[in-house]
């Protein structure tokens, strides 16, 4: 352990870490646009093979069945492209964005903003106990703060709303940060999370749709598939393998994020809540997520209040209809948790 501390304290090691971090940043900046081009190219090629090779095998041209397959395919394609484009181009909620500034203005009007860092921690008039508490909270990070407590980000110095985190890839504070997605070349956060989940949903549905259609044709080689030649067979097999593999990969992400939506968590908060539950069990208590207000309300907070009719799943550029956290009465309801729950 002493040897490791000696190596890490060497200034040259710090320089190496700095250089390595800059190299990683450069790789991410180059990789992001490449992955966007790759994803767009694969989607376009699948559409080309689907409409050009698979659809004529499924039904004769201009028949009701042909229109059905075509309309379903176009509907899925438009939703995939729309949500992908919106997730890539939408600001997830960084300082300077409209949604971030509105939250700051509302918090300032309600007197919820903390004192500036220097005034709060270095002021000679601040009691020693309060200064020690401030340092302890800063050391423990967001895990030691209340569900509605504002603070200052130690990396950027910006006001840090509840549930926000600093993205070390984009170098920005992000509201409800979930993760940085290289395929989106963007951080997934409060303002573009709905687009991300819907992209996964429609991508998975599209993969299953093409895979089932391709598998059905592969099981009927006596049909016109043999007449089309070996190239058509290879194209159908390629569609089946590609959509099956992508569908399996996307399904893992999709069902994971549907779980997070229904439980009112981000990926970062999931690991934090797991730690809090473990600590609570050691004290004989039960921890409850303060942002969880029930499956139905959690779902509506992401997809909108009109989602009972399915409109929340349709393409829309509307901004989030609520704050990144439930309103005060919902927070109070979750914190109370009935007679059977105790909160850490």
* Total helical elements: 12
Query: What is the topology, as strand order, of the major beta sheet?
Result: 1-2
In total, how many beta strands? 6
- The tally of domains stands at 2
Query: Mean pLDDT, as a whole number?
Result: 85
Secondary-structure element order, as H and E? HHHHHHEEEEEEHHHHHH
Helix content: 55-70%
Beta content comes to under 5%
Structural class: mainly alpha
Shape: globular
Sheet having the most strands: 2 strands, antiparallel
| End-to-end distance | 34 Å
The parts where pLDDT drops under 50 for at least 5 residues are 119-137, 338-344
Oligomeric nature of the chains: single chain
Keyphrases for this structure?
344 residues; mainly alpha; 2 domains; two-stranded antiparallel ribbon; 12 helices
Structural write-up:
With 344 residues, this protein is mainly alpha-helical. The chain folds into two domains: 26-92 and 186-336; 98-176, no CATH class. Helix content is 61%, strand content 5%. The chain is built from twelve helices and six strands. It has helices at 2-9, 11-58, 64-89, 98-109, 117-121, 128-140, 193-218, 224-228, 230-262, 267-282, 295-303, 328-336, and strands at 151-152, 159-160, 165-167, 172-174, 179-181, 186-188. The strands form three sheets. Strands 1-2 form a two-stranded antiparallel ribbon. Strands 3-4 form a two-stranded antiparallel ribbon. The protein has a two-stranded antiparallel ribbon with strand order 5-6. Strand 3 and strand 4 form a beta hairpin. It is globular and about 70 Å long. It starts with a helix and ends in an 8-residue tail after the last helix. Residues 119-137 and 338-344 have low confidence and may be disordered.
């Amino acid at each position: 352990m002493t040897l490791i501390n000696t190596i890490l304290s060497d200034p040259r090691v710090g320089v190496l870490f700095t250089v390595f971090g800059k190299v990683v940043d450069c790789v991410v900046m180059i990789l992001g646009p490449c992955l966007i081009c790759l994803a767009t190219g694969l989607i376009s090629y699948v559409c080309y093979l689907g409409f050009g090779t698979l659809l004529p095998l499924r039904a004769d041209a201009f028949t009701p069945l042909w229109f059905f397959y075509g309309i379903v395919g176009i509907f899925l394609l438009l939703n995939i492209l729309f949500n992908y484009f919106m997730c890539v181009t939408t600001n997830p909620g960084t300082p300077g964005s409209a949604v971030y500034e509105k939250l700051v203005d509302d918090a300032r009007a309600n007197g919820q903003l903390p004192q500036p860092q220097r005034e709060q921690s270095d002021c000679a008039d601040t009691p020693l106990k309060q200064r020690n508490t401030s340092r302890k909270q800063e050391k423990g990070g967001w895990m030691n703060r209340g569900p509605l407590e504002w603070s200052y980000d130690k990396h950027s110095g910006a006001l840090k709303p509840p549930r926000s985190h600093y993205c070390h890839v984009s170098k920005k504070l992000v509201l409800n940060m979930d993760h940085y997605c290289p395929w989106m070349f963007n951080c997934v956060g409060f303002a573009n999370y709905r687009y991300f989940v819907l992209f996964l949903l429609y991508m998975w549905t599209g993969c299953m749709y093409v895979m089932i259609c391709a598998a059905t044709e592969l099981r009927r080689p006596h049909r016109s598939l043999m007449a089309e030649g070996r190239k058509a067979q290879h194209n159908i097999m390629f569609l089946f393998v590609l959509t099956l593999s992508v569908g399996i990969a996307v399904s893992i992400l999709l069902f994971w994020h549907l779980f997070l939506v229904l439980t009112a968590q981000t990926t970062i908060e999931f690991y934090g809540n797991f730690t809090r539950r473990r600590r609570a069990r050691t004290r004989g208590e039960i921890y409850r997520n303060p942002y969880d207000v029930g499956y139905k309300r959690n779902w509506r907070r992401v997809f909108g209040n009109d989602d009972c009719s399915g409109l929340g799943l349709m393409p829309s550029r509307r901004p989030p209809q609520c704050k990144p956290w439930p309103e005060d009465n919902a927070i109070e309801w979750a914190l109370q948790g009935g007679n059977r729950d105790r909160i850490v």
